[in-house]
Structures
1.
Amino acid sequence: MKISKRLETIAKLIPSHSKVIDVGCDHALLDIYLSQEKECECIATDINQNALDQARYNILRSHVETITIVNTDGLEGIDVSDRDIIVISGMGTATIEHILEGKKLSNRMIIGTQTDFEDLRRYVISLGYYIQDEKYVEEKGKSYIIIDFVRGKREYQEEDYRFGPILKKNLAFLLKEEEKTINIIEKIPAGDIDLEAKQEFLKELENLKNRL
Ligand SMILES: C[S@@+](CC[C@H](N)C(=O)[O-])C[C@H]1O[C@@H](n2cnc3c(N)ncnc32)[C@H](O)[C@@H]1O
């Protein structure tokens, strides 16, 4: 089965025979792929019944029997064990925080997002996780990051929160961030308070690049 590069990147991080809780599964393509290719058992949740109807149709068509569909807000009512792998992808950081806030979580969470990477890292690390891996994916002109969080503690510097302890050494990521930041700076009027912060960010990116 063919899935997007972004979902494939998530799937590659998940070992065969895992139990996966895919929050915001939408059409359940990741769950079907994981069931077929890696013999995973999946709980596919979504808050939107239309998405779940399509998910159910896709699952039936694929003849997989190891996916349970649940209509819920995030992890509400889901029995999470330490060994499960929670996947959250395709949502903003505020929604991700809402989903994780005050919940029983597993030892490993793979979270993909498009924006507010720094806030996401700070929040999940504050819940008692460290970053085991980070992937950067470009697809159809958009860039995504996927962070593999594991329960435990590591010491992080400011630049690790801002750019990622692993992504700060990834040239493709740094170049893309540089391009995006230059584009933003070009649109900020002179004297605007955001300008200085963006210029500082650009300088930090250049320093990281020079260290490679
Ligand atoms: C952009 S889609 C991403 C689908 C898939 N996870 C992916 O990465 O391709 C976001 C999905 O999250 C669902 N969603 C948004 N907020 C949610 C919440 N609080 N709980 C469960 N699902 C949610 C939406 O209904 C939608 O199906």
2.
Amino acid sequence: MTDTRWNGEPCQARRITALVADDARFPAYWARHLAGTRRHLVEVEYGGETFYLDDEDGSGWHKVTHGGSPRWAHSNITIKPDSIQPVLTCSSAHFLHPHGPHSWEPQPGMDPVYCEGYSQPAAPQPAKAHANRTDDMAS
Ligand SMILES: [Zn+2]
């Protein structure tokens, strides 16, 4: 496992994707215009709390794998908890077959994970392409 730290102390961290949620606590919430979109994030468990860092540019993962010190900038983000999907590449990516990002199940019936794809991503596809998404569509 990768050594991950927050303020220099060991923490649990993993790369995920999730849907961004609005956060009424912050009038100037930086990610408000992103609410409802799926983003790459880092989930951090530290000091009995779980929080999320934006990782769309890799800054979140960079921070926790470089000691988690304040000198690495980060952007906290609020998400819909039931939309979390771990990031795990599929066997096609391991065998270096170019393909686009997709969701898949490591074993039938397991929770879906997200594969970033490999090399040139395929053309953008509508989000409703994934039939196993059931949350937040009706409301
Ligand atoms: Zn894949």
